[in-house]
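Homework help board

Subject: predicted structure for assignment chain

Our instructor gave us this sequence and asked us to write out the predicted structure in token form, then describe one feature. I got the tokens but I'm not sure how to describe them. Can anyone check?
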Amino acid sequence: MSNMDRSADRQRTHRKFFVDPRFAIGIGLVLVSVVGVTWLVRTADQTTDVYSASSTFSSGERIMAEDLDVVQVRIGSASEHYLEPDDLPAEGVLAVRPIGEGELIPRDSIGAATSDDEAQVVVTVAGPVPSSVTEASRVTLWASAAAQTGLAFEAPVVLVPEAQVVTVLEAKGIVAAGSEVQLELRVPRDSVAAVLEATANGAKLAIVPDDQPVG
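My token output:
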């Protein structure tokens, strides 16, 4: 074979090596693997600052920044479900369920803090309450005044149009044996007198849920 023929064979071999699709696919798989491993390592090293409870909080308790600890955790995209330092308002938040000491603060366990224009009252309402009513639910409180004869009730009227459930209390004694439920409600302060008057006069109270829990 002449030198010219051998040179031509080497050129053809060289060209086939670079244009072989299998070679290009192999290079692509290696690059994808390297990028994937690099991403996994970086993700594993990333931490997020979130709040944890420095003590136990009861339902309805106001939580301020000084009541919380900032901890660094590796929870990836799950961090969006927990309270981060930049998300805590200056007036704090309200626990809508008990939160244990050391627990990360889930966003669905808190609600807007109580303002000075609101107060909390405990009422006994006709039960059972709708299953959608939970802590932090918005409800309308209705009242049916006792009739003059004492044998019936007047037509129901709205007593508090915007109330919020703080706690569904465990029924005890006579209430537990009947069809009534005790609720702790947050109501506008100027509605407290009307609620207490209705309770004292034996009015029959009931609630109607307005929306989903605010937590």
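Reply (TA_rk): Your tokens look well-formed. For the description, you could write something like this. Confidence is low (pLDDT under 50) at residues 173-177. That's the kind of observation they're looking for.
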